[in-house]
Amino acid sequence: DIVMTQTPLSLSVTPGQPASISCKSSQSLLFSDGKTYLSWYLQKPGQSPQLLVYEVSSRFSGVPDRFSGSGSGTDFTLKISRVEAEDVGVYYCMQGIGLPWTFGQGTKVEI
Amino acid sequence: QVQLQQSGPGLVRPSQTLSLTCAISGDSVSSNSAAWNWIRQSPSRGLEWLGRTYYRSKWYNDYAASVKSRIIIDPDTSKNQFSLQLNSVTAEDTAVYYCARGSRAYHDSWGQGTLVTVSS
């Protein structure tokens, strides 16, 4: 199975300040179709995970533009340009290169 | 807008079968572009993908090796829903179970989650 490793595991941020989360995969997430299948999710307290970013850098519908994804191969980053109070929760990366889909262990973001 | 509504018991006895259902609105379980997944979450295992069912001219299933001998994911086209059966459960199967619409690219719609406790 592909192992997804996130750092840091927790992050305390000040509203209005930037935040960055790293995700590394145990093998390249570049698929044979030329796309890289790395997605990001936010699980707010007491809620189900919600999709933020897919294919490394494409924001899902309705996701604020303060969220941005970048990276290639095995190294990826999710950045929040200016953290807001509603951004608290646990962030997960997920790979879609091969079954089983696997997730990072999560990064808890708190204000 | 796709909505997934989960149902099923929150308590299962050890060695028995865990059964959950996910009702779909806003899409079809027989869609040729979607896959219907079960994912669970526990403190010890984090988010763990269990398996999926999908239709591409015929029905397909994929399962995680960790549960492959014990799991069945079934579509029900008459009710536009899909189900999870996990046999011979133990305390290690205690988790919050989610259904989700998704593909290799992303999982964009999730059910509300069901906490299933395995205990006598």
Biggest sheet character of chain A:
7 strands, mixed
**Average pLDDT over all residues of chain B:** 97
What order do the helices and strands of chain B follow?
EEEEEEEEEEE
Count of strand segments of chain A: 11
How many extended strands of chain B? 11
- By helix and strand content of chain B, what is the structural category? mainly beta
Q: Which structural class is indicated by helix and strand composition of chain A? A: mainly beta
Residue share in β-strands of chain A: over 45%
* Terminal-residue CA separation of chain A: 34 Å
Your description of this structure?
The complex is a heterodimer of chains A (111) and B (120). Chain A is an all-beta fold. Helix content of chain A is 0%, strand content 47%. Chain A has no helices and 11 strands. Chain A has strands at residues 4-7, 10-12, 19-25, 38-43, 50-54, 58-59, 67-72, 75-80, 89-95, 102-103, 107-110. In chain A, strands 2, 4, 5, 6, 9, 10 and 11 form a 7-stranded mixed sheet that branches. A 4-stranded antiparallel sheet of chain A has the order 1-3-8-7, with no helix packed on it. Chain A is globular. Chain A starts with a strand and ends with a strand. In chain A, 37% of the residues are buried. The model of chain A has no long low-confidence stretch (mean pLDDT 97). Chain B is mostly beta strands. Chain B contains no helices and 11 strands. The mean pLDDT of chain B is 97. Classes of the chains: A mainly beta (111), B mainly beta (120). The interface between A and B is medium-sized, with 24 and 20 residues.
